[in-house]
Amino acid sequence: MNLIQLNKTKFIAVHFLFWVIVWFFFVYFFSYNSNNTGYVTWFSSFLLPVTMATTYFVVYYLIPTYLLPKKYKLFVLYSVYTLVFSTYLILMTMLGCFVFLSNLNIVNMPPMSRNYIFILILVYLVVGIVSFVSLLNHNFKTISKNKELQNKILATQLQIKNQELKYLKKQLHPHFLFNTLNTIYGFALKQSKDTPEIILKLSNLLDYILYQVSKPKVSLKEEVLHIKEYIELEKIRFQDTLKISFHSNEIPDSVLVSPMLLIPFVENAFKHGNLIDGFLTVEINVKLNKNQLAFFIKNTVLNTEINQSEVGIGLKNIQKRLDLLYKNNYQLQIENKDNWFQVNFKILNINSSNNG
């Protein structure tokens, strides 16, 4: 037996059981103040199909066709028609039982079976109960479908977010490597004795990129360490034309951030910075105060206005990643004035569960 047949069998069984209960319900009420068991049994049996027809018409036609689509005027109109027709059927049932079961003797009729208002209320009580349960079931299914749809939307958004993060990371890595390899190439052309040292430092950075950046979180202490290694590479490249200051307070090993979070800021400072009075000046400050991370960097530039496209792909991508990873939990201020380009970045709560 497949699932459809099982559901169909279950549907029939539940409905059959329900109408058996309704039949006993009728027998119980129509037996009030009457010992005519035969009349009550037959009258309840004849009234049951009328109740079933009215109930199924309301539940499976009027409600889904007019009430749920919010066609209230038509629903009221056809409900009135249904009431009139069901009233006619109830009267015909009462008349038929009076003729064939009581031998035209009203005394033989149980009191409750000749009370039209009571019978109508009894029939529509069943219709009302079934309609109420049907509407509850519809609302439950609607809520379940909406929740399932929301879950699918959230899953899709999460998948898009992960794909976008992977895309941004793939953009960061080639950009970072491109700058560093250019440095090695320049020193190799000069046959500089510093070339092996640069390659060694690059090897350490590559280890960080290849094995750490794939993780959702890395140690902030390790991120700062690799910033220092990157600075050492730049010191070799710029030689005596670089003035740099780097300050960082003590950072516990337990503090985690997204990988490659701060290095692109540093990279852009060196890539887009300019020598003024013979020096490229870069100032970096990393400060962890309880749960708040404050990162500040500034570098000298010649132009008072920098086009957004000149800021570099690294800075653009880091802004996108911040929106994805630290939404509503970070502050980023970028300022360019008086021959200084500076970035002030804060993560308000580095331990927030929404991060990363």
Offer a quick outline of the entry.
The protein contains 8 helices and 7 strands, in the order αααααβαββαββαββ. The chain has helices spanning 3-30, 37-67, 72-100, 116-189, 195-212, 220-238, 263-272, 313-325, and strands spanning 218-219, 242-248, 256-257, 280-289, 292-300, 330-337, 340-347.
Q: What is the overall silhouette?
A: rod-shaped
Task: Describe the largest sheet.
Answer: 5 strands, mixed
Q: Quote the distance from N terminus to C terminus.
A: 48 Å
**Which blocks of ≥5 consecutive residues have pLDDT under 50?**
none
Helix content: 55-70%
Order of helices and strands: HHHHHEHEEHEEHEE
SS element count, helices: 8
- What is the residue-averaged pLDDT? 83
- Indicate the structural class: alpha+beta
Strand order of the largest sheet: 2-4-5-7-6
Strand segment count:
7
* Rg on CA atoms, Å: 40 Å
Beta-strand residue percentage: 5-15%
Task: Please describe what this structure looks like.
This protein has 356 residues and is of the alpha+beta class. Helix content is 62%, strand content 13%. It has helices spanning 3-30, 37-67, 72-100, 116-189, 195-212, 220-238, 263-272, 313-325, and strands at residues 218-219, 242-248, 256-257, 280-289, 292-300, 330-337, 340-347. The strands form 2 sheets. Strands 2-4-5-7-6 form a 5-stranded mixed β-sheet, with helices on one face. A two-stranded antiparallel sheet has the order 1-3. Helix 2 runs antiparallel to helix 3. The longest helix has 74 residues, at 116-189. The protein is rod-shaped. The mean pLDDT is 83.
